[in-house]
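Protein modeling request. Please complete all fields; requests missing the sequence field cannot be processed.
Requester role: graduate student
Desired output: 3D structure, token encoding
Chains: 1
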Amino acid sequence: MLFSILVTLQIFSGLVAGESSIRQTQEGRKSLETLSNAGLFFLRWRAYADYKEDLKALRNIFGVTALIFIALFYVISPAESDSFFNSLPGLFIVLWLVMQFGTDFRKSVKEQFSIAGLLILGPWLLLGMDALTNFQFQQLRHMAMPFNAFDIQKLETYQIALVLSLVGGLIGGIMAVFSIVVFSMVPLFFLFLMALLSVASRFALKVQPKTARNLALLYCFIIGPVLMALESKGVI
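Delivered output (236 residues):
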């Protein structure tokens, strides 16, 4: 992967460094103009990008890719159970889910804490249902059975509801915080890359052509060969 990136950088720096020679032919001029226009379009696009819209687009790409791989999985039916291809549908489904969380963060956080709220209110709802049936079914005490080792059944019914509500709130809060942290990592990573690319694009648009050519010459003839040599030796 690193070698491919270095080769790509070497090619582009070589094109910039040899611009004057390439422009001597009509085909070379046309090619350079096409590359220059494409490069400027990309830099301007990334320099003033809408990160939220980009995250939504990335989420949609992951979703469509997941559907494609699911369809291919059932059409091709890989024979090897440990094949990497088998994990691709699940991988892109997970990526789609975490991006779904990241693109609508407030709604996702509300959903997580609403589950915690349900765990807090649940015991009191059961207490109310038991009261309506004159405690005929003892649903709340049945719900508390996993905690019998702590002699919870010796408590009053409202005390059991209070204990279960506190335990449910603690568990729900931990689950909500854990989900927020875990599901936010991937969107934040992509957001960091987008912001980094945006800053780099803005910087590149401000660089003078002469400065860009000098930097390309420096990379093409000194930095690039050194990095490729280090990569081939396994140093980097």
